[in-house]
Amino acid sequence: MAIIIKPIVTEKMTAAAEIHTKKAKQDGLSFSEKFNRYGFMVVRTANKVEIKKAVEEMYNVQVIDVNTIVVGPKNKQRYTKSGLLRGKTMAYKKAIVTTKKDDVIDFYSNI
Predict the structure, then answer these.
(1) What integer pLDDT is reported at residue 12 of this predicted model?
(2) Any idea what DSSP says for residue 43?
(3) Is residue 108 assigned to a domain?
(4) Among 6, 38, 78, 91, which residue has the fewest nearby CB atoms (within 10 Å)?
C-alpha cells in the first residue's frame, strides 16, 4: 500500500516554506536559500517513520523532520434545480517534510 497519496503544491504550502526558511536564518541555522519543506497528502494510518521512509525512497532525498496534521472535513453546500445539497469534504492527513539543506524535490520532473 502506498503511503503518499499526492504532493500538496499550493501557494499556502510555498509560503509556509518561505516562512520556515526566514525563521531558520534568524535563528542562525545553516539552511540554504532553497525552500526545503514540502507538503504531502498521506494515508490516515501512516506514522512519521513510515512517511519518512516513503519520501526518502520515492524522491531520493534525506529527510530531517516530519510534522503531521489531520485536516478535518469542511461543510459544503450548493444550490441546484432540485434544491439545496449539503455535504462534507473528506478528512485527510497532511505531512510536512523537511529535507536536508542541499536536497530538492522536483514534483514536475516526471511530466
Answers:
(1) 86
(2) -
(3) no
(4) 78
